[in-house]
Amino acid sequence: MSALALAVSPDHFIGGERVASKEHFEDISPIDGTVIAEISRGGAAEADAAVRAAHAAFPAWAALGPQGRAPYLHKLADLIDANVERLAEVECLDMAMLLRSLRARVISRGARNYRAYADLAVAYEERDWRSNGTWNRVQRMPAGPAAVITPWNAPFMLSTWKTAPALAAGCTMVLKPAEWSPLSCSLLADLIAEAGFPPGVFNIIQGIGEEVGAALVSHPLLRRVSFTGSPETGRHIAVAAGANLVPFTAELGGKGPLIVFEDADLDAAARKAAGQYDDSGQVCLAGTRLLVQDSVRDAFLQRFHAYVDEHVLGDPREDATTLSPLIHPDHLARVSGFVERAREAGDTIVRGGTRAGGLHYEPTLIEPRSNDAEVVQREIFGPVLTLQGFATEEEAVALANSTEYGLSGIVYTSSLGRADRVGRQLRAGTVWVNTFLVRDLTAPFGGVGISGIGREGGNYALDFYSELKALQILEGTVQ
C-alpha cells in the first residue's frame, strides 16, 4: 500500500463536483511521516459555496420523504460494503488505526449506520391522540441544510454516524472532516456520487478548522450544526451557531472511570482495562481512570500488567501490531507533556511514561498524588491511564463523578444490585457493566457536563435533524 496507489481526491466536493483551492496543506501519514496528499485549503468562499449548494438541493431532497430517500441510503451502504478494503487502507495510512480493525468492524459500521437510519426514518410512527375536541398529530419536518464537523480519530465511521441520520431525516449536508485525516471522508463523497445522490445533497469542504470551519458554522443558511471534538472548540462553535439561533449538538470527549469492585471477575476487568490502550488511547469513550477497590488492588494489578505486556507497538498494517502510532507530532508532544508534568508534580509513573520511536508512546499508568491532579481531571487522549484506590461504593461513585466530564463509565461487579445502584449514580451518557463499546444504534449517545450537548443515536438523532410540528384538527369538521 502506497500513497500513489490511493487515488483519492484531495479537493472539495461541492454541488456534485470536485472543486480545488489555490492554497493547499500537507496530509502526513503518522506511520512513517511521508506526505500522502496535498489537500485543498478552503476558506469562507468554499464554505459559502457548499452551504448554498446544500440550500438549493434541500427542497427536492426533503420532498422525497423517508421512503424516497431510503433507496439512496441503502445503495450507499452497499457501496461501502463493496469498498471496505479500499476505505480501510486509506484510513490506516491517513490516521494509523489498525488495518485489521478497520477491515473487520470499523468501516462496515458506516454501512450499518446508513441502513439503520434509512429504516428508522421509514418506520417512524407519528403520534396521534384526541384532546379538547381536536384530533392531534406530531409531524416531523426536515430541518434544512446541516453542517457536520468530525474528528480525526475514526473519521469515516464518525462521519457516517452523523450524516446518516441527517440525510435520512431529509437534511442536506456540508461535511468538514478533520485536517489531520481527511482522505476517507473524501472517498465517502465518491461513493455518494456513485450512489446517485442529487448534486448538492452531500458536500465536503476541506481545510483548517479556524479558517473554513469557522466560516461554515456561522453561515446564516444553516439550520443544524453537529460537532465532535474538544470542549474548547465546541464552545466557539456553540457561540457561532447561537448567533443564528441554530440548534447545535456536540460530543466533546471524556475522562471515563473504569471501576473494579472486589466482587468483580478480576481477570476480565484487567483484560478490559489493558484494552483501554487500544488505538493508542485515542478513543473518547475509553475508561482512562482505573478505580480499583483497595482489597483487590494487588491481584488486579498483577493481571493488568500481564495483559499490557502483550501489547505490541508497531506498524498498524501488520497483524502483530496492537498499538499504533499517535496521529501527529503535535499530539505526541501533547501526550508527552501531560506525563512530564505529572512526573514533575510528584505523581508516580507506575509503568511506561516514555516515547517509543516515531509517533509511538509506551502504554503508561500513573498513580496521582491527589484527585486534583491534571492527569485525572483533563482528557489526555493517548495511551495514559491513571490508577486510584477506594474503600467503599460511595467513595467509588464520588471519585467517578469528580471530573467535569461525563461521557461514559465502565463498572465491573458480579452484583446486579450494585450494577443498578452505581449505574444510576454515575454522571455519564453511557455506562457499561462488565463490558465495553457495545453499541445499540437505537440507544441515546452523548455526554453530560463538558462532554457534550444533546443526544445522537436512533430517533434522538432523527428528531435533532427535524422540526417537530403539532397538527390539530377540530373534530367533526373534516372527512
UniProtKB/TrEMBL annotation:
Domain Aldehyde dehydrogenase residues, every copy: 22-470
Pfam families: Aldedh
InterPro entries: Ald_DH/histidinol_DH, Ald_DH_C, Ald_DH_CS_CYS, Ald_DH_N, Aldehyde_DH_dom
Record Gene3D superfamilies: Aldehyde Dehydrogenase, Chain A, domain 1, Aldehyde Dehydrogenase, Chain A, domain 2
Annotated keywords: NAD, Oxidoreductase
MF (Gene Ontology): oxidoreductase activity, acting on the aldehyde or oxo group of donors, NAD or NADP as acceptor
Highest taxon in the source lineage: Bacteria
Family, similarity comment: Belongs to the aldehyde dehydrogenase family.
Protein name: Aldehyde dehydrogenase
